[in-house]
């Protein structure tokens, strides 16, 4: 199924680059520069947040360069879908970095130059997330939507963006392999997160490239089955992860310790117990997103409709 390709007007492209790309670049650059200036005092959480801001800065720079230098016919129409999908992820990334960095590290820092840098970095990260949200919300006004079908502005891709993003945050916490390598049940939970992430990412890519309509069967049925499978897998993870992490009968630790890296003061590593709790909470959050996804596709199958691209 073909879809008409078009390009935003020169004025629209200029406005995007001038009024959004430059502030996005500046805010992410200032955020990671301030944390980098703290040296070894920035800790593991600072390194984690700084890497997120660096990725956003690099990707935004590449997108701005392509938008400013390319010829309108150089890329297929789904370039716009790709750029706005990235903006969705960047908004979530900067927002999560702001929250995690502030509540797990900044609040325990003593007042001084480094505290001022950390507060400023958090503020610029919040500004960046707002700018990316403005880009997503304002894309309809900048481009000729009567001629471009914006896949990312429909419900189903936004759910996939949320599913893959939450899974990505879970993987960041699971970088501490000591959380799960000692129990096969916990390793199963990690497998669940990986399988569901891959399935959601594949479906999202199929939608962005409009390959989903090339499948031999109805895509709505295909997506309904995948959503049901993901819900069942996440239910098992939601049961097993807290059970083996927080139940004494299964070798877990129900209470947060007050020693080691879990002291209520500035430490260079995030408390392992807090990481376990964060994974449990994020598992529940992603399960809710998958349930919403399942409900959406159940409704589509029941009425025999689904979102279709606009014909040329």
From TrEMBL:
Alphabetical list of InterPro entries matching this protein: Marvel, MYADM-like
Keywords for the protein's UniProt record, in alphabetical order: Membrane, Repeat, Transmembrane, Transmembrane helix
Membrane topology: Multi-pass membrane protein
One cellular component term from this protein's GO annotations in UniProt: cell-cell junction
Transmembrane segments: 48-66, 78-106, 118-137, 158-179, 185-209, 221-244, 277-298
UniProt protein name: MARVEL domain-containing protein
UniProt cross-references to PROSITE patterns, sorted A to Z: MARVEL
Family: Belongs to the MAL family.
Taxonomy of the source species: Eukaryota, Metazoa, Chordata, Craniata, Vertebrata
Extent of the signal sequence: none
Domain MARVEL: 12-144, 151-302
Top-level taxon: Eukaryota
Cellular compartments annotated: Membrane
Record-linked PANTHER family: MYELOID-ASSOCIATED DIFFERENTIATION MARKER, MYELOID-ASSOCIATED DIFFERENTIATION MARKER MYADM FAMILY MEMBER
Principal subcellular localisation of the protein: membrane
